[in-house]
Amino acid sequence: MENSQINDYIQGKGIEDTIDEIIVELLKSKPSDPIPTILHILEAKNGNQTPELTEKEENELKSLQDRWKAINQGKELRKSQSSNSNSQIIFTVEESKKGQKDSPQDTDDSSSSSDESEPFTRESLLQAHKGFDKVPRSSVSAEAMGVFSKKKEFKKIVIPKSEVIKEKIKSRLKECFMFNNLDEEELGIVIDAMKEVKYKNETIIQQGDSGNTLYVLDSGKCHCFKLLEGEKRPSKLRDYIPGEAFGELALLYNAPRAASIKAIGECTLFALDRGTFTHIVKDASQKNREAYEEFFKSVDFFTQMDFYERVLLCDAVKKVKYIKGDRVIKEGDPGDSFYFLLSGTAIAKKLIDGKVKNVMSYNPGDYFGERALLTQEPRAATIQATSDTLVLAKLESRSFKRLLCDNEKVKLHLLKVINNL
Ligand SMILES: Nc1ncnc2c1ncn2[C@@H]1O[C@@H]2COP(=O)(O)O[C@H]2[C@H]1O
Questions:
Q1: 265 partner at 20 to 30 Å CA-CA among 60, 129, 173, 318?
Q2: Measured from the CB, is residue 244 less than 6 Å from ligand 1?
Q3: Residues 253, 356: one domain?
Q4: Residue 178 and residue 63 share a domain
């Protein structure tokens, strides 16, 4: 067999991805005996062929199912759990149910009673016994993962496509914050590897599953649902419009899918494989997210945003630098960006009664430029750098509207701020 045939076979059959998945899972849970975990992953991949239960397990399953029925007939769950000598198993099975969740299709129907359905199935009991989900998922050290992932050579994937489709993908990627920092060559590699896929009212990503694909929406609409801690039904978190990407978290952190994504009507998406994402997009995206996350966590109103809203904000901002005396914003100009001050200082000057007066000073953690974007009026003041270097995170108007104004709490805060000016 030639090298290229070997590579094609290994990549085409997803063998590398499966081996990656096994190693990542073993590094996370570090079981003393790795074989049951390996078998469990392979069984799940092999179409969930569930092995038979032993007689003891059959009895346990029946007793759990009876108890569940009793709970549903009105007995108090807490009392029943605390008096149960097998409470550890019940907890584990409940936990594993979280990962299985209802299809998002059901989630719009609040009258559905699927939550009362039997959670104690053969599969969940076997999973609990194998202890696959019992071990808390700890993160794998960056070095350990780095050493492991560096061992493989990156092989470019080229999925044949017309120039028209290539151009279409390119313009979508340009809109998509996650790909902002790629140069032309890297962009070309990503475009070659992308595959057009279509979904109609189907679940594209299922919370709790393992994932190997990132998607960029080209047409149609998708909804994101998540089963939040302590809740019985998934909540709708956001919708996606063309030009937005999802499915990156599982690839960035080697974690199970954090939420479910469903196509609403017909959707066309461009799918990117894990290998290309890891080699071309991951580093820049991860660095960017890590660089800004601490900053956004420390700024007053961003603490009202959830973790993922802040993550999207990190993707969208671009760092810009000025030196002392530079003008960032000019009074009277139309507004096109919003700024966060990362380091250095700045002042706002305004023409009042024919004289230029200093009206505000800015320090790290402050922000400016929101007024013109919210009111569509010209810039109300000039902003100038007063420190040797001024470093700002710049958010363009489109992202400002999508990421900040779509969040009612943040929008209200900004409106209050400008009305006090
Ligand atoms: N609040 C959220 N928490 C987690 N994932 C989210 C959230 N909102 C949207 N998502 C997206 O849903 C995707 C589900 O698959 P991933 O975990 O790979 O990546 C996730 C994100 O792209």
A1: 173
A2: no
A3: no
A4: no
Q: Which residue(s) pair with 266 in the sheet? A: 200
Same-domain pairing of 175 and 83: no
Question: Whose alpha carbon is nearest atom 2 of ligand 1?
Answer: 308
% pLDDT > 70, the chain: 72
Per the DSSP assignment, residues forming a β-bridge with 219 are 268
Asked if 180 and 278 sit in the same domain, the reply is: yes
For residues 247-253, give the mean pLDDT. Answer: 91
In a domain, 412, yes or no: yes
pLDDT, tens only, 150-167: 446 788 999 999 999 999
CATH number at residue 359: 2.60.120.10
Number of independent structural domains in the chain = 3
Q: Dump pLDDT digits (tens) for 48-62.
A: 544 556 666 666 666
Give the domain extent around 101.
32-130
- For residue 307, the ligand 1 atom closest to its alpha carbon is 1
Q: Same domain, yes or no, for 258 and 343?
A: no
> Are both 168 and 264 inside the same structural domain?
yes
Q: What pLDDT, on a 0 to 100 scale, did the predictor assign at position 188?
A: 95
The verdict on 171 and 243 lying in the same domain is: yes
Q: Identify whether 159 is part of a domain.
A: yes
- The model's pLDDT over 163-188, given as tens digits with 9 standing for 90+, comes to 999 999 999 999 888 898 788 999 99
| 229 marked among binding-site residues | no
Contact criterion met (CB below 8 Å) for 209 and 256? yes
Query: Which has the closest alpha carbon to 285: 256, 259, 309, 253?
Result: 253
Nearest to 152 by CA among 257, 43, 60, 15: 15
pLDDT of 364 reads 92
Burial class from Cβ neighbours inside 10 Å (0-12, 13-18, 19+) for residue 96 reads buried
Query: CB count, 10 Å around CB of 154?
Result: 11
Q: Is residue 3 part of a domain?
A: no
Asked whether 238 lines ligand 1 (CB < 6 A), one says yes
Does any ligand 1 atom lie closer than 6 A to the CB of residue 258?
Answer: yes
List C-alpha distances in Å: 14 to 47, 153, 212, 240, 359.
Answer: 15, 15, 10, 28, 61
The pLDDT of residue 267:
97
String of DSSP letters for 209-227? S---EEEEEEEEEEEEEE-
